[in-house]
Every structure is written in structure tokens, then in C-alpha cells.
């Protein structure tokens, strides 16, 4: 993931492209998590809403509790888009979110796979509009979110 500050043009690109995703967050979030579970199937074991956990990915993806987690993730990404001019305002929340994810067993490396899956979902949503510049802008934004979450994970 890229680091560094976002340019004005990158911020505009992020806001514009998010409009297409925002219209159907659950669908695009499901594409993101379907990809994530293809890349790291063992992550499904961390979603323990039922006493015995889910027996497979489809069961997890179809459950009401997991659907809520998809909405939570998309809400956080949407908040980052809305706060793209003032990302430090989200830092405290994101560090605490990172801490919570360590507590539920998420490994730091998995945040990178989430980033790859986010780019995959954006590409699926945007098609040809997902240019190299758009990819770079989103990598940069996600990198900022993950840096804050990772700081919390280490605390
Ligand atoms: C490696 C991938 C991830 C795994 C395995 C994971 C797992 C979990 C689990 C087990 C919970 C607690 C149950 C629940 O609330 O549904 C949770 C909560 C949550 N997750 Fe994730 N998560 C992942 C990535 C993310 C990402 C990337 C975000 C946002 C950018 C996020 C946002 C949230 C939020 C907002 C909550 C609720 C926290 C609260 O209750 O205060 N998750 N996650």
C-alpha cells in the first residue's frame, strides 16, 4: 500500500468513484469479503457469532451478523472518504478499532489482504473507470486507514 499525503486530484477521484459504490454498499462489500475469503479462507473462523462458528464461507456470508460486519466495514471506509480532507480526525477511532481487531484474533498481515480485496471490489464496481491513478489514490487512502489501525493493534 502506498503511503504519503493525498493530492487534491486524488481526493476528488476518491470522492467521485465512491459514489458508485455507496449506492450499493452491501453488494460491493460482499464482493470485497468474498475475495478476502478466497485469499485467506481461515479468516472466516474469526467470525464467531454462533457458539460453534460457521462451517463454511457461504454460511458466513449469508448470516445476518456477518452482513452487519460488512456494513460496518463499508461505513468506516465511507467515513474515511467523507473525511479525506481531515483524516487525523479519525485516528483515535481507527486505533481503537485496530486494538479490537487484535483482540478478536486478526493478524496485522491480514489488513494488507483486506486492502487487496478492497481494490478488487472497486475494480469490479468501476470497470474501465478504475484507472491506475484511481488505484493509486485508493491505495493511499487505505494505507492511511491501516496505519492508524496498525498503531492500535501494536498498543
Ligand atoms: C481481516 C479482516 C477482518 C476481520 C477478520 C474482522 C473481524 C471482526 C470481528 C470478529 C468483529 C467483532 C464482531 C462484529 O462486530 O461483527 C469485528 C468488528 C468490527 N469490525 Fe472488523 N474485521 C476485519 C476487518 C475490518 C476492517 C478492514 C474494518 C474497517 C475498516 C472493520 C470494521 C469493524 C467494525 C467497525 C467493527 C465493530 C467494532 C465495535 O464493536 O466497536 N473490520 N471485526
Structure described in brief:
This protein has helices at residues 8-22, 25-39, 57-61, 64-82, 91-103, 108-126, 132-154. It is 70% helix and 0% strand. It has a single domain (8-154), classed as Globin-like.
Describe this protein's structure.
- The protein is mainly alpha-helical and 155 residues long.
- The protein has one domain: Globins (Globin-like).
- Helices cover 70% and strands 0% of the residues.
- It is built from seven helices and no strands.
- Helix 2 crosses helix 6 and helix 5 crosses helix 7.
- The longest helix has 23 residues, at 132-154.
- The radius of gyration is 15 Å and the shape is globular.
- The mean pLDDT is 95.
- Residues 43, 46-47, 69, 72-73, 76-77, 97, 100-101, 104, 106, 110, 114, 145 line the site of protoporphyrin IX containing FE.
What's the helix count?
A: 7
Give the strand content. under 5%
At the fourth CATH level, what is the homologous superfamily?
Globins
How many structural units, i.e. domains? Answer: 1
Q: What structural category arises from helix and sheet content? A: mainly alpha
Instruction: Write the CATH architecture name.
Output: Orthogonal Bundle
Q: Keywords for this structure?
A:
155 residues, mainly alpha, Globin-like, 7 helices, 70% helix, 0% strand, binds protoporphyrin IX containing FE
Q: Topology of this protein?
A:
Blueprint lengths: L7 H15 L2 H15 L17 H5 L2 H19 L8 H13 L4 H19 L5 H23 L1
The chain binds protoporphyrin IX containing FE (HEM).
Amino acid at each position: 500500500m502506498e503511503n504519503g499525503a493525498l493530492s487534491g486530484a486524488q481526493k476528488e477521484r476518491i470522492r467521485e468513484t465512491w459514489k458508485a459504490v455507496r449506492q450499493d454498499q452491501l453488494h460491493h462489500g460482499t464482493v470485497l469479503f468474498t475475495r478476502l475469503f478466497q485469499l485467506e479462507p481461515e479468516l472466516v473462523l474469526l467470525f464467531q457469532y454462533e457458539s460453534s462458528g460457521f462451517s463454511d464461507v457461504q454460511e458466513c456470508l449469508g448470516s445476518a451478523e456477518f452482513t452487519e460486519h460488512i456494513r460496518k466495514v463499508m461505513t468506516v471506509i465511507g467515513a474515511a472518504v467523507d473525511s479525506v480532507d481531515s483524516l487525523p480526525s479519525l485516528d483515535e477511532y481507527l486505533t481503537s478499532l485496530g486494538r479490537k481487531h487484535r483482540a478478536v484474533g486478526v493478524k496485522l498481515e491480514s489488513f494488507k489482504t483486506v486492502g487487496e480485496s478492497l481494490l478488487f471490489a472497486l475494480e469490479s464496481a468501476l470497470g474501465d473507470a478504475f484507472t491506475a491513478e484511481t488505484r493509486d489514490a485508493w491505495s493511499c487512502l487505505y494505507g492511511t486507514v491501516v496505519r492508524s489501525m496498525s498503531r492500535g493493534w501494536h498498543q
